[in-house]
Amino acid sequence: MNLSIEALESFVHAASSGSFSAAARALGKSQSTISETIARIEIELDVELFVRGARQLTLTEPGRSLLGYALETLSAIDRLKRHAATLGRGQEAKLTLVLSDTYQQSQYEARLHELDQRYPDLEFECFFAEQADVLDLINQGRANLGLLAAQPEYGPDIAHSRLPYYSSFGLFVSRGHALTQKAVVEPQDLAHYRMLRLSSVVSSDLDDATLPAHSTRCWSTPDYLLLLEMAALGFGWAALPKGLVESHAQGRVHELVMNGWPKQVSVDVVWSRKQPLGPAAAWLLERLTQTNRS
C-alpha cells in the first residue's frame, strides 16, 4: 500500500466539501486529478469511499470510517514536521498569535515570559479575535497560531489541539438590570431582554438548550471586551468568560444564577496545515498543550 500525503489530502478535502471540483480548487489541482486520485485510493484499498451523486459526493459507511484514519495520519505527519522544525536551525523572524478572551490571562502572561526568554530576538505580534474571525486569520496566513473556544469540527486545512483546561463562562447583566431581582433565572426570562452576542459566531461548547433559541432583540460585537462593556452599561445580558469579567468589570456586572451555568468551555489552539510552523511557533504550540506547566 502506497498512499501519498497528496492522496490523503484529496480524500479529506473531497469529504469535507462534498465535491471533487471544490477539493480541486482548495488544493490547486484539476478536477480530473482529484477524481483520478480518489479512484486510485479506492482501488488501492479495495473499498468505495463515495457515492457519486449528480451534484454532491456522499461518504459511504466505509468512507466515513476511513476518513478518521486519514485525518489521524495527516495529524501525525503534521506533528512530525513540527518536531523537525524544532530541531532545525532556521528560526522564523516573526511569530503572530491570534488570541481569544477565552484564554486565561495568567496563562497568556506566563507563556509570553517564556517566549521572551527563549526567543529574545523574535518579533512577536498578537491579535485579539473570536471564533470565525480567528479561523479566517489562520486561513489567510495572517497568523501562525490561534486560540478560540473549541469547535465541533474544523475545515480540512485547519489543524487543532485541545488545551489541557477549561474556560469558565457565566451569564452577566449590569448591576441595575431587572434580571438581578430574580434569585434563579429561567430561559424564558432571558427571552424578554436583549441578548448580547459575538458577531462572528460559529458552533461551540456555548451552544446550549437552556438559552432561548431566538431573542426578540439582539446586539452583536466582534469581541468579548465590548460585550462586557455593553452588559455593564445595561444594554442586555451576555455569556462572558469569567476571567475577563474578574479582570475588567470592576464590580459593574452581576452574574445570573441559571441551571447549567456557569459553563465550562474547552479551548483549542489552531494552525494551518498549508503553512509549516517555524521552530518558535512549534515550540509555543507544544508549550500551550502541555498538561504539566508551571
TrEMBL record:
Gene3D superfamilies: 3.40.190.290, Winged helix-like DNA-binding domain superfamily/Winged helix DNA-binding domain
Pfam families: HTH_1, LysR_substrate
Residue span, HTH lysR-type domain: 1-60
CDD domains linked: PBP2_LTTR_substrate
Keyword Transcription: yes
PROSITE patterns cross-referenced by the UniProt entry: HTH_LYSR (PS50931)
An example molecular function term from Gene Ontology annotations: transcription cis-regulatory region binding
Highest taxon listed in the record's lineage: Bacteria
Keywords from the named record: DNA-binding, Transcription, Transcription regulation
Stated family: Belongs to the LysR transcriptional regulatory family.
PANTHER family linked: HTH-TYPE TRANSCRIPTIONAL REGULATOR (PTHR30126), LYSR FAMILY TRANSCRIPTIONAL REGULATOR (PTHR30126:SF91)
Protein name (Swiss-Prot/TrEMBL): LysR family transcriptional regulator
The species this protein was found in: Pseudomonas luteola
